[in-house]
TrEMBL record:
Domain of life: Bacteria
Protein name in UniProt: precorrin-2 dehydrogenase
SUPFAM superfamilies, alphabetized: NAD(P)-binding Rossmann-fold domains, Siroheme synthase middle domains-like
EC number: 1.3.1.76
Lineage, broadest ranks: Bacteria, Bacillati, Bacillota, Bacilli, Bacillales
Keywords from the UniProt entry: NAD, Oxidoreductase, Porphyrin biosynthesis
Length: 212
Protein backbone atom coordinates (compact mmCIF):
# COMPACT_ATOMS: atom_id res chain seq x y z
CA UNK A 1 0.00 0.00 0.00
CA UNK A 2 1.24 3.47 -0.87
CA UNK A 3 2.18 5.71 2.06
CA UNK A 4 0.82 9.09 1.03
CA UNK A 5 2.16 12.39 2.34
CA UNK A 6 -0.77 14.59 3.42
CA UNK A 7 -0.58 18.14 2.09
CA UNK A 8 -2.90 21.11 1.60
CA UNK A 9 -1.97 22.87 -1.63
CA UNK A 10 -2.84 26.42 -2.68
CA UNK A 11 -4.57 26.17 -6.06
CA UNK A 12 -5.97 29.68 -6.20
CA UNK A 13 -5.91 30.85 -9.86
CA UNK A 14 -3.79 27.82 -10.83
CA UNK A 15 -4.94 25.59 -13.67
CA UNK A 16 -6.36 22.15 -12.96
CA UNK A 17 -7.30 20.09 -16.01
CA UNK A 18 -9.94 17.38 -15.73
CA UNK A 19 -10.30 15.05 -18.70
CA UNK A 20 -13.84 13.70 -18.65
CA UNK A 21 -17.21 15.33 -18.13
CA UNK A 22 -19.33 12.77 -16.32
CA UNK A 23 -20.34 11.99 -12.75
CA UNK A 24 -16.82 11.46 -11.41
CA UNK A 25 -15.60 14.70 -13.00
CA UNK A 26 -18.56 16.47 -11.39
CA UNK A 27 -17.48 15.23 -7.95
CA UNK A 28 -13.92 16.41 -8.54
CA UNK A 29 -15.10 19.85 -9.66
CA UNK A 30 -17.25 20.20 -6.54
CA UNK A 31 -14.19 19.62 -4.34
CA UNK A 32 -12.05 22.04 -6.36
CA UNK A 33 -14.42 25.01 -6.55
CA UNK A 34 -13.83 26.19 -2.94
CA UNK A 35 -10.08 26.27 -3.67
CA UNK A 36 -10.71 28.88 -6.42
CA UNK A 37 -8.72 26.89 -8.96
CA UNK A 38 -8.88 27.65 -12.66
CA UNK A 39 -10.76 24.48 -13.65
CA UNK A 40 -10.62 23.32 -17.25
CA UNK A 41 -12.75 20.39 -18.43
CA UNK A 42 -11.78 18.52 -21.60
CA UNK A 43 -14.64 16.36 -22.84
CA UNK A 44 -16.94 16.07 -25.88
CA UNK A 45 -19.96 15.96 -23.54
CA UNK A 46 -20.73 17.42 -20.13
CA UNK A 47 -22.83 16.46 -17.12
CA UNK A 48 -25.80 18.80 -16.59
CA UNK A 49 -24.31 20.18 -13.38
CA UNK A 50 -21.04 20.98 -15.12
CA UNK A 51 -22.93 22.51 -18.01
CA UNK A 52 -24.45 25.07 -15.65
CA UNK A 53 -21.04 25.85 -14.15
CA UNK A 54 -19.56 26.32 -17.61
CA UNK A 55 -22.38 28.64 -18.65
CA UNK A 56 -21.86 30.75 -15.52
CA UNK A 57 -18.11 30.98 -16.14
CA UNK A 58 -17.09 29.06 -13.02
CA UNK A 59 -15.28 26.47 -15.10
CA UNK A 60 -13.90 26.36 -18.65
CA UNK A 61 -15.17 23.65 -21.00
CA UNK A 62 -13.15 22.51 -24.00
CA UNK A 63 -15.76 20.58 -25.99
CA UNK A 64 -13.41 18.19 -27.72
CA UNK A 65 -11.50 14.92 -27.58
CA UNK A 66 -8.35 14.94 -25.45
CA UNK A 67 -5.04 16.05 -26.96
CA UNK A 68 -1.68 16.25 -25.13
CA UNK A 69 -1.53 20.03 -25.57
CA UNK A 70 -4.63 20.33 -23.35
CA UNK A 71 -2.32 19.77 -20.37
CA UNK A 72 0.16 22.55 -21.17
CA UNK A 73 -0.72 24.90 -18.29
CA UNK A 74 -1.91 22.39 -15.72
CA UNK A 75 -0.53 22.11 -12.21
CA UNK A 76 -2.79 19.17 -11.41
CA UNK A 77 -4.38 16.74 -13.85
CA UNK A 78 -7.31 14.42 -13.25
CA UNK A 79 -8.05 11.66 -15.76
CA UNK A 80 -11.71 10.92 -15.08
CA UNK A 81 -13.11 9.24 -18.16
CA UNK A 82 -14.62 5.75 -18.30
CA UNK A 83 -12.30 4.81 -21.16
CA UNK A 84 -9.03 3.25 -20.02
CA UNK A 85 -7.21 4.14 -23.24
CA UNK A 86 -8.02 7.83 -22.81
CA UNK A 87 -6.89 7.86 -19.18
CA UNK A 88 -3.67 6.14 -20.21
CA UNK A 89 -3.12 8.75 -22.94
CA UNK A 90 -3.58 11.52 -20.35
CA UNK A 91 -1.04 9.87 -18.06
CA UNK A 92 1.48 9.47 -20.86
CA UNK A 93 1.09 13.12 -21.91
CA UNK A 94 1.67 14.50 -18.40
CA UNK A 95 5.05 16.10 -17.76
CA UNK A 96 7.25 15.04 -14.83
CA UNK A 97 6.43 18.26 -12.94
CA UNK A 98 2.67 17.78 -13.26
CA UNK A 99 0.78 15.73 -10.69
CA UNK A 100 -1.84 13.36 -12.06
CA UNK A 101 -4.74 11.45 -10.56
CA UNK A 102 -6.29 8.58 -12.48
CA UNK A 103 -9.73 7.88 -11.07
CA UNK A 104 -9.72 4.41 -12.65
CA UNK A 105 -6.30 3.33 -11.39
CA UNK A 106 -5.08 4.65 -8.06
CA UNK A 107 -1.78 2.78 -8.34
CA UNK A 108 -0.86 4.96 -11.33
CA UNK A 109 -1.73 8.23 -9.55
CA UNK A 110 0.63 10.80 -8.02
CA UNK A 111 -2.06 11.89 -5.60
CA UNK A 112 -5.51 10.98 -4.34
CA UNK A 113 -8.24 13.28 -3.09
CA UNK A 114 -9.39 12.57 0.48
CA UNK A 115 -12.90 12.81 1.86
CA UNK A 116 -13.22 16.44 2.99
CA UNK A 117 -15.31 18.38 5.49
CA UNK A 118 -15.21 22.17 5.01
CA UNK A 119 -16.44 24.70 7.52
CA UNK A 120 -15.13 28.02 6.30
CA UNK A 121 -11.38 28.10 6.98
CA UNK A 122 -11.61 24.76 8.81
CA UNK A 123 -10.75 21.85 6.51
CA UNK A 124 -10.76 18.29 7.85
CA UNK A 125 -9.67 15.51 5.51
CA UNK A 126 -9.94 11.75 5.85
CA UNK A 127 -8.12 9.07 3.90
CA UNK A 128 -7.60 5.34 4.27
CA UNK A 129 -4.97 5.46 1.49
CA UNK A 130 -7.46 3.65 -0.70
CA UNK A 131 -7.86 0.70 1.69
CA UNK A 132 -11.53 1.39 2.39
CA UNK A 133 -13.26 4.37 0.72
CA UNK A 134 -16.47 3.32 2.50
CA UNK A 135 -14.81 3.80 5.88
CA UNK A 136 -13.50 7.20 4.78
CA UNK A 137 -17.05 8.23 3.83
CA UNK A 138 -18.39 7.00 7.18
CA UNK A 139 -15.77 8.94 9.13
CA UNK A 140 -16.52 12.00 7.01
CA UNK A 141 -20.22 11.73 7.90
CA UNK A 142 -19.32 11.47 11.59
CA UNK A 143 -17.11 14.55 11.31
CA UNK A 144 -19.81 16.52 9.52
CA UNK A 145 -22.05 15.91 12.51
CA UNK A 146 -19.36 16.72 15.05
CA UNK A 147 -18.20 19.87 13.28
CA UNK A 148 -21.54 21.45 12.43
CA UNK A 149 -22.23 24.59 10.40
CA UNK A 150 -21.54 26.81 13.41
CA UNK A 151 -17.83 26.09 12.96
CA UNK A 152 -17.76 28.28 9.84
CA UNK A 153 -18.52 31.46 11.81
CA UNK A 154 -16.65 30.17 14.87
CA UNK A 155 -13.35 29.61 13.06
CA UNK A 156 -13.67 32.95 11.23
CA UNK A 157 -14.10 34.62 14.63
CA UNK A 158 -11.03 32.82 15.99
CA UNK A 159 -9.04 33.95 12.97
CA UNK A 160 -9.91 37.62 13.49
CA UNK A 161 -9.51 37.40 17.26
CA UNK A 162 -6.05 35.88 16.86
CA UNK A 163 -4.97 38.80 14.67
CA UNK A 164 -6.28 41.30 17.21
CA UNK A 165 -4.50 39.57 20.08
CA UNK A 166 -1.26 39.40 18.07
CA UNK A 167 -1.51 43.14 17.44
CA UNK A 168 -2.24 43.85 21.11
CA UNK A 169 0.40 41.70 22.82
CA UNK A 170 4.04 41.00 22.02
CA UNK A 171 5.17 37.38 21.84
CA UNK A 172 5.34 35.89 25.30
CA UNK A 173 3.24 34.44 28.12
CA UNK A 174 0.53 37.11 27.92
CA UNK A 175 -0.12 36.50 24.23
CA UNK A 176 -0.07 32.72 24.71
CA UNK A 177 -2.54 32.96 27.59
CA UNK A 178 -4.91 35.12 25.55
CA UNK A 179 -4.76 32.77 22.58
CA UNK A 180 -5.39 29.78 24.84
CA UNK A 181 -8.38 31.59 26.37
CA UNK A 182 -9.93 31.77 22.89
CA UNK A 183 -10.58 28.03 23.18
CA UNK A 184 -13.07 28.64 25.99
CA UNK A 185 -15.98 26.26 25.10
CA UNK A 186 -18.57 28.97 25.73
CA UNK A 187 -17.40 30.82 22.62
CA UNK A 188 -18.57 27.98 20.38
CA UNK A 189 -21.87 27.73 22.25
CA UNK A 190 -22.44 31.48 21.98
CA UNK A 191 -21.79 31.19 18.27
CA UNK A 192 -24.26 28.31 17.92
CA UNK A 193 -26.97 30.28 19.70
CA UNK A 194 -26.34 33.57 17.94
CA UNK A 195 -25.11 35.28 21.11
CA UNK A 196 -22.57 37.35 19.24
CA UNK A 197 -22.60 40.20 21.76
CA UNK A 198 -21.42 37.86 24.52
CA UNK A 199 -18.69 36.53 22.26
CA UNK A 200 -17.48 40.02 21.38
CA UNK A 201 -17.60 41.12 25.03
CA UNK A 202 -15.40 38.16 25.98
CA UNK A 203 -12.90 39.11 23.28
CA UNK A 204 -12.76 42.69 24.52
CA UNK A 205 -12.08 41.43 28.04
CA UNK A 206 -9.23 39.35 26.65
CA UNK A 207 -7.77 42.37 24.90
CA UNK A 208 -7.90 44.30 28.17
CA UNK A 209 -6.34 41.41 30.08
CA UNK A 210 -9.42 41.02 32.28
CA UNK A 211 -9.87 37.23 31.89
CA UNK A 212 -6.24 36.14 32.23
Amino acid sequence: MTNYFPIHINLEYKTVVIVGGGHVATQKVASLLPAKANIVIVSPTLHNTLQSLAESGQITWKQKEFEPRDLDDAILIIAATNVTAVNEAVQEAAQHWQLINRTDKQSESDFITPATVRRGPLVVTVSTSGASPSLARKIKADLEEQFDDAYDDYVCFLQQARLMIAAKYDKGPQRRAALQALLEPNILEWTRHGEIDRREAYLQQLLMGATQ
